[in-house]
């Protein structure tokens, strides 16, 4: 039985792994001026030491996710659970900024169209990954029968 090709999924997962690795390293190695530039120059009092420490912790989590996506890109058929978790995570990440938009005063930090645009891009990426994910696992007996 031939193995179905998942080349497009491997490329997408590899690109996301690379992007997340760069972002995670940037989060870990960043300092206050860089964070102020990335957040579109908020008031200096908005960037606290606690935020910087939390950002470095989150950078470690992003690097961990990057490694998981790298391993999933090598063999997507065996790592469907990682791909499914990424799809669900992207859907959650699309909804949480929208909740923040209506419950917090986020409009002073970001324009509304950027928050909605980010949510739509995340949902579109989740849709692409759902479309490309392996559909069925082919059952094979253990051993060489």
What does the model show?
This protein has about 140 residues and is mostly helical. The chain has one domain (about 5-130). The chain has 5 helices and no strands. The mean pLDDT is about 85.
Summarize the structure.
With 145 residues, the protein is mainly alpha-helical. The protein has one domain.
Number of domains: 1
Give the ordered list of helices and strands. Answer: HHHHH
The backbone outline, from C-alpha atoms, is: elongated
Number of strand elements = 0
Main pleated sheet: none
Task: Tell me the Rg in angstroms.
Answer: 19 Å
Descriptive labels:
single chain, 145 residues, mainly alpha, 5 helices, elongated
Q: Secondary-structure map with pairings?
A:
Layout: H1 7-29, H2 32-38, H3 49-74, H4 80-103, H5 112-132
């Amino acid at each position: 039985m031939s193995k179905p090709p998942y080349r497009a999924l491997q490329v997408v997962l590899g690109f996301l792994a690379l992007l997340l690795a760069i972002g995670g390293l940037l989060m870990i190695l960043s300092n206050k001026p860089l964070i102020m530039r990335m957040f579109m120059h908020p008031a200096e009092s908005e960037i606290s030491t606690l935020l910087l420490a939390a950002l470095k912790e989150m950078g470690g989590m992003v690097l961990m996710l990057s490694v998981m996506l790298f391993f999933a890109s090598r063999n997507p058929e065996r790592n469907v659970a990682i791909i499914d978790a990424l799809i669900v995570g992207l859907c959650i990440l699309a909804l949480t900024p929208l909740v923040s938009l209506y419950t917090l005063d986020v409009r002073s930090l970001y324009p509304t169209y950027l928050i909605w645009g980010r949510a739509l891009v995340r949902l579109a990426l989740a849709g692409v990954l759902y479309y490309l994910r392996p559909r069925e696992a082919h059952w094979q007996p253990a051993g060489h029968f």
